[in-house]
Please model this.
Amino acid sequence: MARQPVFENALRNQWDRKWIVTAEHYSEFSYDPSTKVGAVFVKDDIPLVQGYNGFARGVIDSGGLIVDRKEKILRTVHAEINCICNAAANGIRIQGCKVYLYGMLMCSQCAGAVLQTKPTHITVVLPDGKRVAKWVDSFIVSCEMYQQARVEYDIYRQHWSESAGSYWYESVTNPEDLLDYEEAEYVDGEGRDRLFLIRQLLSQTRRFQKGLQGPFVSCGLPEGTF
Ligand SMILES: [Zn+2]
Model:
C-alpha cells in the first residue's frame, strides 16, 4: 500500500520540518549510545529552548553506567525535562509553545511536565527502525493525557528515501506502524488489547474538538488531566 509522505503540501509543515530537524540535531548531542532524543520548544516560529537526554550537569558516568540500561534509566534526565529545566534556570517563559521531540515516544512523566507548560501542539518523530515496545504502556498514558488536556499531537515515523536522497515523514495512525519491529510481542493476549487501545488513541481521537470543558484537578496531576 502506498504510504503518503507528510510535510509536502503546506508552509506550516515546512516549519514543522525545520523544528523536527532542529530536535534531531540536538538528539545527536546525547552520549547515550542506544537512544538519542532531542527536544525543542518553539513559540511564534522562534526556538526558545532545546534539550537532549543525558545525565545532569556534573553527574559522572563512572564505569560505563550509560551502557547499563537499569543504571542509565535511574540517572537520565529526558530531553523534554531538560528543556523545561533549562528554561527555568535561565528565566525563559515557555508557556504556550509547540513542542517537538525526536528520537523516542514521550513518556507519561514527561508528558505530564510538558502539559504543565500549556503547549499548543506536540509533535513526536521516531527514527526509522527505532524500537519502542518497552515504552508503549507509558506512551498510551501520554496520549490519554494529551486528549484529556485538549492538546493536539502528531506522531511520525522518519524514513530515508534513496530516490529522493532525503528523509520523509509518515504520519503514524496505526499501532502496527508504531510496532512494526516488535509486533510479535503484541499479537497475543494482553498485547491485542494494547493494540486496540493504541489504535483508538492514534486514529479516532488524534484530532479533537477544542474548547470542551474538562474537570480541573490539583493534587499533582497536570492541568486538564482528569
Ligand atoms: Zn520522558
Observations:
- Residues 78, 80, 107, 109-110 surround zinc ion (CB under 6 Å).
- The first helix runs from residue 11 to 27.
